[in-house]
Specification:
Elements lengths: L5 H9 L6 H20 L13 H11 L7 H26 L5 H5 L1
Helix pairs in contact: 1-2, 2-4
């Protein structure tokens, strides 16, 4: 089993051929957004992907979900957040299916 860094694992998602070009572009943007979040949290993206803990995913979700859904703008932000979380979910499932990280199966 090859050990990938967090950065490399994020790049692997862009190489998936089973996604349409539009989905690949959107999902890649969302994964980059998550990797930027990790960098802001002080995570070194060169550590093995196996060291990435579920707390970072939960913290990312809390950071993008609106606190309240009281207006149309809030609903729009909620839909955008769901799209980003869907991309992260697909990435986790890809990691799990490639046996690169077990968090995908346990928490998705």
């Amino acid at each position: 089993m090859t050990t990938y860094t967090i950065q490399q694992a994020g790049g692997l998602f862009q190489e998936r051929r089973d996604l349409s070009p539009g989905s690949r572009k959107l999902y890649s943007f969302c994964i980059r957004t998550f990797l930027d979040f990790l960098t802001q949290e002080g995570v070194n993206l060169q550590i093995p992907i196996t060291q990435l803990q579920e707390g970072y995913f939960l913290k990312f979700a809390r950071s993008i979900l609106p606190r309240e859904v009281a207006s149309r703008e809030d609903i729009s932000h909620l839909r955008t957040a769901y799209g980003k979380l869907s991309a992260i979910r697909q990435w986790l499932l890809m990691l799990e299916s490639a046996q690169m990280h077990q968090i995908g199966r346990a928490h998705v």
